[in-house]
């Protein structure tokens, strides 16, 4: 076994809810990043992957457990660990050269030496000739190159990449990913280990020596897939496609019992996050499943290809379909239920009725909203009332996302209406209480 660089032992992280109670974002995370490896971390949005990276980088402290760097406890940031963010995080008033030099300047390096180091990395990352450009003058791909150069100029042992390619178009992201791999394999950068957080399953399989699957609520590592394929890898090869299938299977497996998710296992509580799934995408997958050559069952990568959804979008839609009883998963395949088959054949009005019925049965937040509206004499209630409730168990951002989904779904199911100007949720006009 190669030498451990960063070790997480039973790491936990908690945040306080609006009622003062602890909400676990990470719990019992055990992970070792070793010399000479690239590890990819996959998981659904909100599972705590980015929080784990920030703990490893020393940007935030763990509440439980221990973080070791080279066998010693990590307190604060480590010089040997650098992070690349999805959002580029560049200073807009600084040139490319000055953005890249920033970390070296903070360390007190002499201007001549930091200029020399920055110029070398700028050339290495393919930005020669743009040293004097401002971020606003660069494309998204070039801005991300600056972010990567700013990390590499510090000559880190460990490079943490938090969805570093996800804000880029597909071709730009693939090209930049391949260039990073070439720098790594050729030894042109001193980095000894890379950890990549991604939503893109193909990206993970193409880059990594190990793929870790993160569970949610709370976040923790629940599965690991070693990858021994030599580099460079071909995305179209049978070996890569089989690995992608395997990762889909691992990501859609039940984390509670190690078995596969069925529609009976998907149960929500009132304060849980809701899948960020668009209704059109849900219906699109069901309609695709019903057509040839699938006839109600399909391989998940094939469905992703047919619907042109990203892996992150697809997993959210799958969660929604399972939650509402329209589909279930087995062996990395999606199967349409009998209810899903009837839904596809139904008219638009019938679909809305079926959708509304499933919402009331399977989504406690929507059932709670409907009950509150029916009990109120006016038949309408402000959205802030439900946001306050959700903030007891979810962060501010998660609470708003959950309510937005509930409103979208509830409106489609004709369970209630929503006034975008006033933020008021109300019963449909025909269900309004009679005036006294």
Automatic annotation (TrEMBL):
Gene Ontology terms, MF aspect: ATP binding; ATP hydrolysis activity
Ranges where the ABC transporter domain occurs: 6-243
SUPFAM superfamilies registered for this protein in UniProt: P-loop containing nucleoside triphosphate hydrolases
Domain of life: Bacteria
Keyword Nucleotide-binding applies: yes
Pfam family, one: ABC_tran
Family label: Belongs to the ABC transporter superfamily.
Protein name in UniProt: ATP-binding cassette domain-containing protein
Natural source organism: Duganella guangzhouensis
């Amino acid at each position: 076994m190669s030498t451990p660089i960063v070790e997480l032992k039973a790491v936990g992280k908690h945040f306080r809810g609006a009622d003062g109670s602890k909400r676990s974002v990470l719990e019992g995370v055990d992970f070792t990043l070793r010399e000479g490896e690239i590890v990819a971390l996959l998981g659904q949005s909100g599972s705590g992957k980015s929080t784990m990276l920030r703990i490893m980088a020393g940007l935030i402290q763990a509440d439980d457990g221990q973080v070791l760097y080279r066998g010693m406890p990590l307190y604060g940031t480590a010089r040997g660990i650098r992070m690349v963010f999805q959002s580029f995080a560049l200073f807009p008033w600084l040139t490319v050269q000055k953005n890249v030099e920033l970390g070296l300047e903070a360390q007190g390096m002499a201007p001549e030496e930091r200029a020399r180091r920055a110029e070398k990395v700028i050339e290495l990352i393919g930005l020669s000739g743009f040293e004097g450009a401002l971020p606003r003058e660069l494309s998204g791909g070039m801005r991300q190159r600056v972010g990567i150069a700013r990390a590499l100029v510090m000559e880190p042992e460990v490079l943490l990449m938090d969805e570093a390619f996800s804000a880029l178009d597909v071709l730009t992201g693939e090209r930049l990913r391949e260039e990073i791999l070439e720098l790594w394999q050729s030894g042109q950068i001193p980095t000894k280990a890379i950890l990549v957080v991604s939503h893109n399953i193909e990206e993970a399989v193409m880059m990594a020596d190990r793929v870790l699957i993160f569970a949610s609520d709370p976040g923790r590592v629940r599965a690991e897939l070693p990858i021994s394929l030599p580099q460079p890898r071909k995305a179209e090869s049978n070996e890569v496609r089989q690995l992608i299938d395997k990762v889909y299977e691992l990501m859609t497996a039940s984390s509670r019992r190690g078995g596969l998710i069925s529609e009976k296992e998907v149960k929500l509580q009132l304060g849980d996050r809701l899948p960020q799934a668009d209704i059109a995408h849900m219906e699109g997958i069901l309609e695709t499943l019903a057509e040839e050559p699938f006839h109600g069952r399909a391989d998940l990568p094939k469905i992703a290809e047919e619907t042109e959804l990203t892996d992150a979008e697809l997993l959210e839609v799958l969660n929604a379909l399972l939650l509402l009883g329209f589909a279930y998963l087995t062996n990395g395949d999606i199967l349409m239920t009998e209810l899903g088959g009837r839904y596809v054949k139904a008219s638009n009005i019938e679909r809305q009725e079926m959708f509304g019925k499933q919402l009331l049965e399977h989504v406690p937040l929507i059932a709670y909203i409907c009950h509150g509206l029916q009990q109120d004499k006016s038949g309408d209630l402000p959205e802030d009332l439900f946001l306050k409730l959700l903030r007891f168990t979810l962060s501010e951002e998660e609470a708003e996302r959950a309510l937005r989904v509930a409103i979208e779904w509830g409106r489609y199911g004709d369970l209630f209406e929503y006034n975008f100007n006033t933020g008021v949720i109300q019963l449909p006009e025909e269900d309004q209480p009679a005036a006294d």
